Amino acid sequence: MEFKIGDYVTRNSYGNDIIFLIIDIKDDMAYLKGVNMRLIANSPLSDLVIDNSEREDEFFNKISSECLFESDRSNYFYLPAKVLQIDADESYLEKCLDFYKKNQIMAFGKVMKEEDMSKNIGKFLEEYKPDVLVITGHDAYKKGSTDDKDINSYKNSINFVRSIREARKYEKSHEKLIVIAGACQSNYEELIKAGANFASSPKRINIHALDPAIIASSLAFSDRNQSID
């Protein structure tokens, strides 16, 4: 079967569980990006099959419409919390910013590689002064790793940890600055210990591309004294 960049595919060896977009092809290897999961992978072309069951825009439009937040604030003026999202993936960030816009939340986004986030996060916090900070991108539990408690077993968890620590230098209070951090399969415990209020993923699972934005939006419309699951 002939494949080209832009095709939607699944992997036979993984039970065709996740739909990917082919973003590059080199020799007999395809480089893949999850349509609805924050996941980067590669695969031999021989393991792929075309899948047209769900297009990227269809997925995001469906989730966006299902997760709009309604807030009963008719009796007094209410301004939702301000969100700053620092994301290593530009296309996912654009979708998240669109989601914030649909929910009428003031949100700002910055695209940056995971390893560069900690060096720049302080100046972004000073510039935007957000109530909610989202730190996300791509992560993974490295193939062949045997200790899921070891931060070195993860692709980018250490970069997220460093970024959270820098954010907490700016604002130590977990109430004045809410931090949401992590991506697919991140080391949840280390992110929480570093100072995140919410993190992915406790069960080392893949997360949907909009998950951080959905959590941030839920928080943006919640009273400070309200418990959030």
Would you write up a description of this structure?
- The strands form 2 sheets. The protein has a 5-stranded antiparallel sheet with strand order 4-3-2-1-5, with no helix packed on it. A 5-stranded parallel sheet has the order 7-6-8-9-10, with helices on both faces.
- The protein starts with 7 loop residues before the first strand and ends in a 9-residue tail after the last helix.
- The radius of gyration is 18 Å and the shape is globular.
- The chain has helices spanning 56-66, 90-102, 114-128, 157-170, 188-194, 211-220, and strands spanning 8-11, 20-26, 29-34, 40-44, 48-50, 83-87, 107-111, 132-136, 178-181, 198-199.
- Strand 6, helix 2 and strand 7 form a beta-alpha-beta unit.
- It is of the alpha/beta class.
Search tags:
alpha/beta; 31% helix; five-stranded antiparallel beta sheet; 229 residues; five-stranded parallel beta sheet; 6 helices
Give a summary of the structure in a few sentences.
The protein is α/β, with parallel strands linked by helices.
